[in-house]
Amino acid sequence: MPARLAVLISGNGSNLQAILDAIRMRVLDAEVVVVVSNRKAAYGLERAAKAGVPTRYHPLKPYRDAERSREEYDADLAQIVKEFSPDYVILVGWMHIFTNQFLRHFPYRVINLHPALPGKFPGAHAIEDAFAAFTRGEIKGTGVMVHLVPDEQVDRGPVLLTGDVPIYPTDTLETLRNRIQQTEHKVLVQAIARLIEGDE
């Protein structure tokens, strides 16, 4: 039976597309059962709709305006995702740090993609931070990792797979970003495939 994936996005959704393409090409024995975005304008929602995948929009702003907590937001999000009974929750460009009010519902089933190697450049500006470190002569390359999210730490957790990305003297931030994205697509699909195979 195909693994059930809930995919959480905040933007363009190119990694979501990589998952959908891998499923279509039978590289992944999986099904995306829901795509959730915290941004209404996220193009990833259109990608999901085109693929016939149910979508949900869960914005943070109403919680902030009503002075409700991040924990309440996460608890409500968990209920939305649980409706679809996913085997895994995949975070691809999801710009939101989870509390245990979400994570406790999916123990060792939340998977994050981060555009840096383990222990390097945590947070939302990993690519910019790596490029700056390269221009200062501190590093020669960067990479991506897919890891489990067992707790509230940022961009930490058991690493499932990594991929190296060289940085060239001719690179701009945009060319580096594009090359990292290409690596993300491959590493993400491989990591999900390994998880699914491990469960069989």
What would you note in describing this structure?
It is a single chain. The protein has 7 helices and 7 strands, in the order E-H-E-H-E-H-H-E-H-E-H-E-E-H. It is 39% helix and 22% strand. It has one domain: Rossmann fold. A 7-stranded mixed sheet has the order 3-2-1-4-5-6-7. Helix 1 (14-24) crosses helix 7 (173-199). It has helices at residues 14-24, 43-50, 61-65, 70-82, 100-103, 126-135, 173-199; strands spanning 3-9, 30-37, 55-57, 88-92, 110-114, 141-148, 159-166.
Shape: globular
Question: What's the CATH H-level homologous superfamily?
Answer: Formyl transferase, N-terminal domain
Q: Number of DSSP strands?
A: 7
Enumerate how many helices there are, as a single number: 7
Low-confidence stretches: none
How far from one another are the termini? 9 Å
Instruction: Decide which structural class fits the backbone.
Output: alpha/beta
Helix content: 25-40%
Strand order across the biggest sheet?
Answer: 3-2-1-4-5-6-7
Portion in strands = 15-25%
**CATH fold annotation:** Rossmann fold
Major β-sheet profile: 7 strands, mixed
Text of the CATH class: Alpha Beta
Oligomer: single chain
Number of structural units classed as domains: 1
Q: Mean pLDDT, nearest integer?
A: 93
Order of helices and strands: EHEHEHHEHEHEEH
Radius of gyration: 17 Å
